[in-house]
Amino acid sequence: MPYSFGKEEKHEKSVTVIDTDSVERIIVPLKLLHERTTIEGTLDEILHPDCDEKIVNGYVRAVSTDTYLGLEALSELKKTYPCLLEASGKSFENDESSVTLSIDQLDNLEKDPVEVFKFYYNDQMKCEPSGHLVELFISAVKSAEEENV
Fold first, then answer.
1. Where are the domains of the chain?
2. Which helix (H) or strand (E) holds 84?
3. Are 78 and 55 spatial neighbours (Cβ–Cβ below 8 Å)?
4. pTM of the entire predicted model
């Protein structure tokens, strides 16, 4: 897959075409629209990259080694890297585990407060919130919106 990261990141991407009559195999290289790079470092280093513009404007996986990537940090990363595909950071302070979000997931979180609630609940409790909790959250959001009108 041309958008793979990790070990596959530097592999030459191609499609193999086999002519069934002559059994000839033709390998057709795939040209990527953008460079594909993993950028790893502290959040500050990632947000202020010292690299070629071709990399900044390419397909990027950002890995923060020092902090959890909340919605604000993810939004800043999207401003820095227009083609950001994946971002991950530490799960908790003094914890070696990490949380990874795809940009599609981030877009959903930015558009829907219920998705933010579900993501946060799942992240903290390691399970999905019950329908009752989701309904309580929706009711609380509606009440808050009515107060602000």
1. 6-111, 112-149
2. strand 84-90
3. no
4. 0.55
